[in-house]
Design brief:
The protein has about 80 residues and is mainly beta. The chain has one domain (about 5-80). The chain is built from one helix and four strands, in the order E-E-E-E-H. It has one helix spanning about 70-80; strands at about 5-15, 20-30, 40, 50-65. It has a four-stranded antiparallel β-sheet, with no helix packed on it. Strand 3 and strand 4 form a beta hairpin. The termini are far apart.
Length: about 80
């Protein structure tokens, strides 16, 4: 059975915190990329964080296989600039 193709949209996400707001831009699954929708995201420690509001949804869509690997891109940049040492 063929796996269903998953698409992602780049979204601007905002979360209210006591000191104001946290803002980030992330590629999220298209089914969750609903303007003013609320989503949960995983933090760096793999814990779920509730309360992120989708403030804007980009028009471009990418297949999961085509998503940039930002971790690898960051490592490559550090190696290329000599900052990895």
């Amino acid at each position: 059975m063929a796996r269903k193709l998953a698409y992602y949209r780049q979204c601007r996400l905002v979360k209210s915190i006591p000191a104001g707001e946290k803002v980030l831009v992330s590629w999220i699954p298209e089914k969750f990329a609903n303007l003013n929708g609320v989503v949960r995201l995983r933090d760096a420690d793999k814990n779920w964080e509730d309360g992120w509001v989708v403030r804007s949804v980009g028009s471009n869509r990418l297949r999961e296989a085509d998503l940039p690997d930002f971790h690898e891109l960051s490592k490559a940049h550090l190696r290329a600039t000599g900052d990895a040492e």
